[in-house]
Amino acid sequence: MLVSKLAAVLVLVVSFVVAPARAQNQTESKAQPQTQSQSSQASATPTAARPADVATPDAILAATYDVISGPPGKRDWDRFRSLFLPGARMAAVVKGKDGSLSAKSFTPEEYITFGDAYFMKSGFFEREASRHSDRYANIMQIFSTYESRHDIKDPTPFVRGINSFQLFFDGKRWWVVDIFWQEETPDAPLPEEFLPKAH
Hints:
Blueprint (H helix, E strand, L loop, with lengths): L2 H7 L11 H7 L8 H9 L12 H12 L8 H6 L1 E12 L5 E6 L1 H14 L3 E12 L2 E11 L9 E11 L4 E10 L16
Parallel strand pairs: 1-6
Antiparallel strand pairs: 1-2, 3-4, 4-5, 5-6
């Protein structure tokens, strides 16, 4: 997908966007784990997706970034749910105070729980800046470089990183199977191949 086309569609953030690890870390302690019955119910009855959101890999990435982006306020969580395969996971690389790294994994429903509290108070716009993707038959892996801003007019992002999307095409629509991301840090700068190409 052309980055310029994405930038026009996305006024963005999670992940997919999927929200960055920093936003999630600020609210992670508020997340309440689901009971097994809640988790099963959520995955057994997926929300119907907008056909345009899931028609192509470009479309589902655009929808993922778009749905979590906006000024302070409620997000369209039913639309968010509709993008994910039942049983899908999300995860973020988190750096502890002692410098150790861990991967925090959670469900889309758990993301909604702590993401909702954050987004109600804070503006958050994430856009895709660059992409590297590989596809085989019905599966696709995408490294989507993201830029996050508190306000769409902010000249520079407050954080960048890479969202790793795993996608599945069932013959009718695309699904997000998982999103795993890591925020850029001084000791882990984004490599040149994952940055926007200079024009």
